[in-house]
Amino acid sequence: MESPVMSADLPDWTRRAFSAPRMRPYLEAAGNDGREAVALYWWNVEISAAFYGPLHCLEIVLRNALHGQLAARYGRSDWWAAAPLTEHGVRLVEEAADKCRRRLGRRGRSGPTADDVVAELSFGFWVSLLSNRTGSQYDRLLWVPTLHQAFRPRSGSRAVLHESLETMRLLRNRIMHHEPIHHRDLAADHRRLYQLLNAIDGVVAKEIRVMDRVPFVLARRDAVRSRQAQPWF
Fold first, then answer.
1. Has residue 25 been placed in a domain?
2. What sign does the CA torsion over 62, 66, 72, 76 have?
3. What is the pLDDT of residues 15-70, one digit of tens each?
4. Is 50 helix (H, G, I), strand (E, B) or coil?
């Protein structure tokens, strides 16, 4: 059931269109001020959109860097057929290939090619290749001989890289599922994102900054919440 405060302070259209449970975290963050809660919701949409571009680039840059190293290591574009993947990793590749086959089959195409499978594999798959969990076989079989070469010297330890990438993966998932991110230390998330991009390719990181709106949107948070400015999206 909706609380009396929730019912009284939120505009009717938000409960009808978005639902009271969805709006509750925003209302709580806004001190039960319904108008500020709506403004915070719009700002959350705006900052999510701003992060989408750099996160999109990070995922693709990481994917291509790791794929390139592994293809060179095993001498084949479908390197997963030879690489010592875990049972979970093998399952993820098989699921990606199955999705490609179904999609291509509907289009009357044969396949999939290695490029099709690479594009289908999730961000989580690529991040998992850098895992340093106890007992993980990827440390000595993938990281030491091969994957460390995907990162620039002095990029930090593999453990820090993996932890940072996992943080970005979780942030990406929250954004893609339209969840609140306004409560996070988004300035720290932004710095971490560029540390990762610079660890892979400093030139690409510099190019991405040109289109990056995150600093601008972060600076507008208080103005949007106080309704002195409108969100841009």
1. no
2. negative
3. 999 999 999 999 999 999 999 999 999 999 999 999 999 999 999 999 999 999 99
4. helix
- Residue ranges of alpha helices (H) inside 75-139 are 87-106, 114-120, 123-128, 138
Q: Is the pTM of this model over 0.70?
A: yes
In a domain, 69, yes or no: yes
Domain presence at residue 31 = no
Contact (CB, 8 A) for 155 and 199: yes
Residues 6+ apart with CB under 8 A from 219: none
Residue 207 structural domain = 48-78+122-225
Closest CA to 83 of 110, 60, 117, 111: 117
Q: Is residue 106 part of a domain?
A: no
Calculate the CA 155 to chain-centre distance. 20
pLDDT above 70 (res 185): yes
How far apart are the C-alpha atoms of 134 and 107, rounded to whole Å?
A: 43
The token duo for 165 is 């990438």
Number of other CB atoms surrounding residue 137 within 10 Å = 12
Task: Provide the pLDDT for residue 7.
Answer: 46
With a CB cutoff of 8 Å and minimum separation 6, the contacts of 97 are 112, 117, 120
- Is the separation of the CB atoms in 67 and 78 below 8 Å? no
